[in-house]
Amino acid sequence: MKARVTVTLKTGVLDPQGKAIENGLASLGFGGVGEVRQGKVFDIALSDRDAEKARADLSAMCEKLLANTVIENYAIEIL
Amino acid sequence: MKARVTVTLKTGVLDPQGKAIENGLASLGFGGVGEVRQGKVFDIALSDRDAEKARADLSAMCEKLLANTVIENYAIEIL
Questions:
Q1: Which domains does chain B have, with CATH numbers?
Q2: ipTM
Q3: Nearest CA among A6, A4, A57 for reference residue B36
Q4: Contact criterion met (CB below 8 Å) for B60 and A76
Q5: Which NCBIfam families match (chains A, B) (predicted)?
Q6: Residues of chain B positioned with their CB less than 8 A from the CB of A28
Q7: A56 in helix, strand or coil?
Q8: Which residues lie below 8 Å from residue A70, measured CB to CB, with a gap of 6+?
Q9: Rounded-to-integer distance, Cα B78 and Cα A47, Å
């Protein structure tokens, strides 16, 4: 089973990397670009055959390693 | 209009960061985790009102700045 975990910064948390990309796009001549925020995506192969179990495992992985839940949100998608 | 661009490594390109996460998960006691690959996600606010135009703009942004198309794939999603 494959899953995708997306980790994004919570609203209100400063994102200097996103800001740099925003400025980079503007200086490349891309107009009309508003806020840019960067996040991370993890594609994970799991041996779980049960989607509910996989979701619970992934949630624990996010809490323990993949995301800093103080400043980041995570979303789990079973593919 | 909001869009999400997901940039992932092409198949076959080594991903040491993903490998490190894989090992980290294993040492935290998560069994049954296969390959982990890490990618990037960009949430971009656009002033475009036309989805086709937005998609073309985002594609150009990926080619020029957001992705290294030699080793990375990108996917555009209009939200």
A1: 2-78 (3.30.1280.10)
A2: 0.92
A3: A4
A4: no
A5: phosphoribosylformylglycinamidine synthase subunit PurS, PRK05974.1
A6: 61, 64-65
A7: helix
A8: none
A9: 32
